[in-house]
Design brief:
The chain is α+β, with helices and mostly antiparallel strands. It has two domains: 74 residues, Glutaredoxin, CATH 3.40.30.10; 112 residues, Up-down Bundle (Glutathione S-transferase Yfyf (Class Pi), Chain A, domain 2). It is built from ten helices and six strands. The strands form two sheets. Strands 2-1-3-4 form a four-stranded mixed sheet, with helices on one face. Strands 5-6 form a two-stranded antiparallel sheet. Helix 1 links the parallel strand 1 and strand 2. Helix 1 packs across helix 7 and helix 4 crosses helix 7. The protein starts with a strand and ends with a strand. The relative contact order is 0.18. Bound molecules: glutathione.
Length: 227
């Protein structure tokens, strides 16, 4: 069975992608969850993953690292990871690659912290640009391929790639417009997303670095964590 080396569910946006994909697709795996140690985590993760970063999928002792490579590895072994329709599949790969390599301001200003709710202060102009592009992508996918998921009727890897944005939107009250907000709510109701969210709220760890990132651009208005 696969094993997924990953970090805290509350904070680890990159770990969420393969986790939610495998859960939603019924691909069996076990978790090796190693909480962020605080500060530089390279030494902590390096014995478990060649890049010193999470996630990393272990298959029969063989590591497959980086969320995009993990998804492609799974796509070669399991049906339905990418949309079946060729146009939708090409679009889904483009959108996922863009998510993987861009949106730096969104990542910095609105880091994933599933349990908190934040009122943002002044929004950097580049954040507006990132949010507008997310809105454009989500509305395009939903319109072109008919929804309720970005690549059509089924949850696929492109939804997994944007799953962290869905939690960011919940935490920071981000609104996208068009069909995009209904898509966010649909994603939050997905059993796999609910399972991740519940576990995130129950985690006992508070890593000061990740906690500090949250208040850099806003003020915490609620903390739903119970762990
Ligand atoms: N491109 C990598 C990014 C992985 C990544 O940055 N993961 C974070 C955790 S969410 C990490 O390991 N951070 C530890 C560090 O930066 O030292 C992927 O897609 O898997």
């Amino acid at each position: 069975m696969y094993e997924l080396v990953m970090a805290n569910k509350n904070y680890s946006s990159w770990s969420l992608r393969p986790w939610v994909l495998m859960r939603a697709k019924g691909i069996a795996f076990t978790e090796r969850l190693i909480p962020f140690p605080g500060g530089d985590s390279y030494e902590t993760y390096r014995p478990h993953t060649p890049s010193g970063r999470v996630p990393c999928l272990i298959d029969g002792g063989k590591p497959v690292w980086d969320s995009l490579a993990i998804v492609e590895y799974l796509a070669e072994r399991h049906p339905g990871v990418w949309p079946e329709d060729a146009d939708a599949r090409a679009w889904a790969r483009c959108a996922s690659a863009e998510m993987h390599s861009s949106f730096e301001t969104l990542r910095n200003v609105c880091p994933m912290n599933c349990g908190v709710r934040v009122r943002l202060g002044e929004r950097p102009p580049m954040l507006e640009r990132d949010l507008a592009r997310i809105a454009e992508l989500w509305n395009e996918g939903l319109t072109r391929f008919g929804g309720p998921y970005l690549g059509g009727a089924e949850f696929t890897a492109v939804d997994a790639f944007f799953a962290p944005v869905v939690f960011r939107a919940q935490s920071f009250g981000l609104v996208f417009g068009g069909q995009a907000d209904a898509y966010g709510h649909h994603m939050l109701a997905l059993p796999a997303m609910q399972e991740w969210y519940r576990a995130a709220l129950q985690e006992p760890w508070r890593e000061p670095g990740h906690e500090a990132e949250i208040t850099q651009f806003g003020e915490i208005t609620a903390d739903e964590r119970t762990g």
